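Researcher: Let's do a round of design. I'm pasting the structure tokens now; please hold your answer until I've finished.
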């Protein structure tokens, strides 16, 4: 366990059709921390004192949250009360303003003893995982709930939001249909919840979309003025849903120039869902500028930004590193004025996917320059043989590897949480699992300044 030898990061310039190598400061390095805890879709949070949280961690005591105060040199696991026996991965969100930790896990199962349950088990901790209060929320939904928070628009204080598709996240017509993205909100840090509003995600009800298309939205973000943004796939275009009244009403706006991979059919989705899902694709900086990222139909990662609340957008540019032929699960974060960070799984040659991370200090300029690169060891890719979808787990409501989370730490380092395929598939990397038997472990990637810089 611990952090491996850092590797020098490189620079590249975003372009309209491809990114190109560019000169950049050589004092940035990338590295990776192997937690040795089993995981699936890894989520990340960072506190104001640089404490790092990762979830889920599949321990012998249940689904846990990992905590590190030394950027991954050591990890401590905490199991929220009420989630000890959960078979589902958990989604973590850390509110660094209120210093509050949220962990939610779906209750849906297609098999006994509790088939077809609804809602989510939500754990909230005000002491960073030492103690938890747990309750069931969002009874109309079953899968893919995302939690986020931000300032109120109408008055002082903060709002915590929970967004989820209803009644399911996976559409398999004519048996299962997705109808609406519903948003719940809490004004007291997750104690009491109320349903706010939502927007239609059923293609047959959306003008201009074929009824067979696929619509799915990811995690939301809140601007400094309280405006809420949720980005996602809107057929073959990227779109952002916007609410200016704390989730009550929504306006869905297309991003011009976005072109996503063609959706074929439900079977193709179950086998290649990583080409369609955009779970962490939206960010907002301190000035209220909105940033979005998505993989195009050829697998290149694109990004665009808006300075007027998602009304108009910049021309999209390729932000995946030169040599990356296929990018999946791109995630984005923003801070300051125009500073963004991205992370994703990227494939260069062969079938192996590596972990990539990069940052740009002024994305609003023409031809923005990124610095970053691969953070895992070259002979230990995160997914040596590509993504292996387990149809059975998808049908049971469990998640596979569809999340990458990226976040700036107060030190200025850029951190990412991801999963790494292990059992039987990554023999280059020795693994002493500190959890129950599982195929993946949680890892922490980092892009930061060299110690002697």
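Researcher: That's everything. Go ahead.
Model: Designed sequence:
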């Amino acid at each position: 366990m611990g952090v491996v030898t850092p590797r020098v990061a490189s620079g590249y310039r975003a372009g309209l059709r491809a990114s190109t190598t560019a000169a950049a400061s050589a004092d940035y390095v990338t590295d990776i921390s192997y937690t040795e805890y089993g995981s699936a879709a890894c989520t990340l949070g960072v506190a104001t004192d640089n404490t790092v949280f990762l979830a889920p961690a599949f321990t012998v005591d249940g689904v846990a949250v990992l905590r590190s105060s030394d950027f991954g040199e050591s990890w401590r696991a905490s199991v929220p009360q009420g989630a000890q026996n959960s078979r589902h991965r958990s989604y973590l969100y850390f509110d660094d303003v209120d210093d509050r930790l949220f962990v939610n896990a779906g209750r849906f199962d297609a098999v006994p003893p509790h088939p077809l349950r609804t809602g989510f088990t939500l754990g909230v901790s005000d002491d960073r995982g030492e103690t938890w209060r747990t309750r069931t929320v969002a009874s109309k939904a079953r899968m893919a709930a995302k939690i986020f928070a931000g300032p109120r628009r109408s008055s002082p204080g903060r709002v915590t939001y929970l967004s989820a598709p209803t009644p399911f996240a996976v559409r398999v017509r004519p048996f299962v249909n997705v109808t609406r993205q519903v948003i719940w909100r809490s004004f007291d840090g997750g104690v009491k919840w109320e349903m706010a509003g939502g927007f239609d995600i059923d293609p047959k009800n959306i003008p201009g979309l074929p009824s067979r298309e696929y619509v799915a939205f990811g995690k939301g973000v809140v601007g400094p003025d309280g405006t809420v943004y949720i980005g996602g796939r809107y057929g073959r275009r990227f779109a952002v849903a916007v609410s200016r009244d704390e989730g009550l009403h929504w306006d869905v706006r297309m991003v011009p120039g976005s072109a996503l991979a063609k959706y074929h059919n439900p079977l193709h989705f179950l086998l290649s869902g990583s080409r369609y899902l955009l779970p962490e694709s939206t960010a907002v900086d301190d000035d209220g500028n909105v940033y979005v990222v998505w993989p195009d139909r050829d697998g290149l990662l694109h990004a665009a930004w808006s300075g007027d609340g998602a009304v108009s957008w910049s021309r999209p540019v390729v932000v995946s590193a030169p040599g990356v032929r296929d990018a999946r699960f791109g995630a984005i974060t923003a801070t300051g004025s125009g500073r963004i960070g991205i992370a994703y799984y990227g494939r260069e040659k062969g079938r192996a996917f590596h972990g990539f991370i990069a940052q740009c200090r002024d994305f609003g300029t023409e031809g923005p320059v990124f610095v970053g690169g691969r953070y895992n060891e070259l002979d230990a890719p995160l997914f040596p043989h590509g993504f292996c979808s387990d149809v059975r787990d998808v049908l049971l409501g469990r998640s596979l590897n569809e999340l990458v989370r990226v976040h700036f730490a107060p030190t200025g380092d850029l951190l990412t949480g991801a999963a790494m395929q292990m059992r039987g598939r990554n023999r280059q990397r020795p693994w002493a699992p500190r959890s129950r038997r599982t195929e993946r472990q949680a890892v922490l990637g980092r892009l930061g300044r060299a110690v002697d810089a």
